[in-house]
């Protein structure tokens, strides 16, 4: 299949973005001390006896509702205005984040999600609280109560809403979102459950674990639904954690007899990868084919400019297409995940997409961490397998790629693995910078190992100089040189 015969890009398969909404008072923050102080100021100014302890025991409804308990109707609006005048100076600094808030927001970020706050509190006050406590929330919304909160939740496509009040459950239900209740406000866990909360937690410290399990379940369900829509499938199987999980998922979804695992053999595949890949496919009962790819015949690949991966992936998909045709298979899937999609410069993903390859893991929004977690739960041997990009990724951009250079890197990395086997080495990269090499190993090992021994081992494979990178292993470090070549000469 030539580039002139590029197939149409696959139709998109949308899984909703993770958007989580939170109530503010007594869900994210304990604002009672400051609120009580403002009510005490109003009482002092007006001479009206206000039980401020009672007020803060029933936070949740709009301010006008509470104000009507203490002032006649004709004075409510004026007292609300006065309350809001006092609020920024007296109510903000006394608020504290409730336990688990930072961890909950971080868990959403780790899942590539967005956050919002929907509160009955005045919007400017919501912003002040979040800014004061340094809570990184994407969208603060105020002045909404009860089912009205559903309007904002629907607008921002929030699928989960977390609150401490029965009114928050109303808001979630109005939006068709999962109602998660925390028993940190005026209602007990039993009361929240009886009112209709879908999930009840004691507090936000329990939220990250619940969220991670819930989202993984939803994304796995979406993945299996997507895979089940195909009668047969070819999986581009490198042997890494992502493609291995995709292969296992496809075998589960449509049966191993309907799945073909294709591991491309080329100088860029480390020798140590092929045999484990064959064992893995055999254990699943899927057909394993090993076509030879010829990316080295493509000038764009050999030239090794920043778009090298484009030509490699183009060669792969175009090599797999005849195999798919032979077996009567209409879809070729790659192991691209959700993290890959936001990693910036990824010309290989574009090449595969242009040639009609599908990306079920990315489309299901599965992150690398989720893939590893699901792999562990399925008992896959690849669950903790270190990342193993192709050998060409070790060659500095601008240096023409040859089989000899790839073999030299492969031998050098094998030598490092042998040297550090007793240390539990997980990740190693020998970056070919020309005649010199940069050695990247797990950061925690850098201070524990003899650097000179590593340098000697690498130089013995044909490099004239080498050094251990003090920053340790990191995926895509060659792209750092692409962005700022002078810094890494």
TrEMBL record:
InterPro entries: HAD-like_sf (IPR036412), HAD_2 (IPR041492), HAD_sf (IPR023214), LarE (IPR005232), Ni-pincer_cofactor_biosynth (IPR052188), PGP-like_dom2 (IPR023198), Rossmann-like_a/b/a_fold (IPR014729). This is ATP-dependent sacrificial sulfur transferase LarE. It comes from the Bacteria. NCBIfam families: ATP-dependent sacrificial sulfur transferase LarE.
């Amino acid at each position: 299949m030539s580039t002139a015969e590029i197939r149409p890009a696959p139709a998109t398969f949308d899984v909703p973005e993770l958007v989580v909404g939170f109530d503010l008072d007594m869900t994210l923050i304990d604002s009672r001390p400051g609120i009580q102080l403002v009510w005490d100021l109003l009482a002092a100014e007006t001479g009206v006896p206000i039980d401020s302890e009672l007020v803060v025991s029933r936070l949740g409804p709009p301010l006008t509702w509470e104000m009507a308990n203490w002032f006649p109707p004709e004075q409510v609006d004026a007292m609300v205005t006065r309350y809001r005048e006092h609020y920024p100076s007296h109510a903000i600094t006394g608020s504290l984040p409730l336990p688990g808030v930072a961890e909950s927001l971080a868990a959403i970020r780790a899942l590539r999600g967005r956050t919002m706050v929907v509160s009955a509190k005045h919007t400017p006050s919501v912003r002040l609280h979040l800014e004061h406590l340094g809570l990184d929330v994407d969208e603060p919304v105020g002045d909404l109560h009860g089912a009205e909160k559903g309007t904002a939740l629907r607008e921002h496509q929030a699928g989960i809403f977390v609150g401490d009040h029965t009114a928050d459950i109303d808001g979630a239900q109005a939006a068709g979102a999962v109602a998660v209740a925390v028993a940190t406000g005026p209602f007990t866990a039993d009361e929240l459950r009886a009112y209709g909360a879908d999930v009840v937690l004691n507090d936000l410290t329990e939220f990250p674990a619940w969220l991670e399990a819930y989202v993984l379940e939803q994304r796995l369900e979406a993945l299996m639904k997507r895979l089940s829509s195909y009668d047969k499938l070819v999986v581009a199987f490198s042997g890494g954690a992502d493609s291995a999980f995709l292969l296992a998922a496809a075998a589960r979804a449509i049966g191993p007899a309907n799945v073909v695992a294709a591991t491309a053999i080329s100088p860029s595949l480390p020798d140590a990868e092929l045999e484990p890949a064959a064992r893995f496919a055999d254990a699943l009962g899927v057909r394993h084919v090993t076509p030879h790819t010829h990316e080295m015949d493509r000038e764009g690949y050999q030239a090794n400019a920043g778009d090298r991966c484009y030509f490699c992936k183009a060669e792969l998909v175009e090599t797999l297409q005849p195999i798919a045709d032979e077996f009567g298979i209409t879809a070729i899937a790659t192991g691209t995940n959700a993290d890959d999609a936001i990693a910036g410069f990824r010309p290989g993903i574009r090449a595969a997409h242009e040639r009609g390859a599908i990306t079920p893991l990315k489309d299901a929004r599965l992150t690398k961490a989720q893939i590893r977690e699901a792999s562990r739960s399925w008992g896959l041997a690849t669950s903790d397998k270190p990342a193993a990009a192709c050998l060409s990724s070790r060659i500095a951009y601008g240096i023409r790629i040859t089989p000899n250079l790839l073999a030299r890197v492969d031998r050098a990395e094998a030598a490092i693995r042998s040297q550090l086997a007793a240390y539990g080495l997980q990740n190693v990269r020998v970056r070919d910078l020309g005649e010199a090499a940069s050695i990247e190993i797990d950061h925690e090992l850098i201070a524990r190992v003899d650097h000179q021994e590593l340098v000697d081992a690498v130089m013995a494979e044909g490099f004239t100089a080498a050094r251990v990178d003090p920053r340790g292993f990191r995926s895509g470090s060659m792209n750092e040189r692409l962005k700022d070549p002078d810094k890494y000469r």
